[in-house]
Design brief:
The chain is mainly α. It has eleven helices and two strands. The longest helix is centred in the last third of the chain and has 41 residues, at 295-335.
Amino acid sequence: MNEQKPSRLGVVDALSLGFRLVAQRPWLLILPALLDLGLWFGPRLSIRPLVNRLLPLLQMPADAPQEMQQMAALSREMLEQIGEHWNLLSLLARGVVSLPSFVANQIALPPVGTSSATVYIASIAAALGWGLLAGLMGTLLGGLYLTLIAGQLRRWLPEKADQSHQAAGRNFLQRLGMTWLRLILLALLLLGSALLIIVPLSLLASLLSLINPALALSSLSLLSLATGSLVLWLGFVLYFVTGAIVLDEVGIVQAIWRSVNVVWRNLWSTLGLILLSYIIGAGFTFIWNRIAHSTWGTAVGILGTAYIGAGLSAAALAFYADRRQRWQEATAPRAA
């Protein structure tokens, strides 16, 4: 890679850099592809018995408002789909850092000659235990995946590397272990924040339903809209937290600080990166889904998803590294 690199990465520059990086290092596709093959050919963990036990709890009284009955019917339909098709092991691709996975997003896949063994989980405790284990392993895999991409990006853009961290002497396993720990702490922080929002809303909705069911429904819709807007905004300003953890090897608080600063100083370009990444990912996902009606089509979907996901991840890391460096260089004279 001897081509000239721009001093400042724009959105298109970052995307181009990310896909070129992956194209010249195709071994970065191995981890997500192996995970997809494991989910495709390996055993499945189904929560269908647990879902069947929960479905009667969503039956609404006959005198309940029509809106509440429709919401309950929709919830029952979603639960039935989850119980019928969802594999609990797909959480391996859904850690704090999600691996690009074609199989984890599929409701059904074409047969591959032999039926995978299915293990049915009937208790909430077992489902939570398996889910926790899969989430921890998925976070480890996601951390490994981003660490590998970040390592290659450092070799390509050495001038963008953060010189403030003290991890230069650590070996790869030490860096990965520290990254995994920080990602777990980030997951706990996000979970705690979600509970602080969900629990009060649930209590408020229960209280209002005792007073006036119609008022409870309208109030819950309004609160859900406000909560969704808050979650979107937080997801936007914290978009580069995992990148800061993996690329800069800093703690949670410092990673949040860096992400907020990079996003705040580059609002429109960050929004453009996110929107373009979403359009590219969603567009190619539509293409892979259209051809995934055969074994070969699914194989193409797995490789294509791995390539697009790796390219977008590398692009986000490169964009963050460039804008973080520019921000630190701009503020260094004032701090001196």
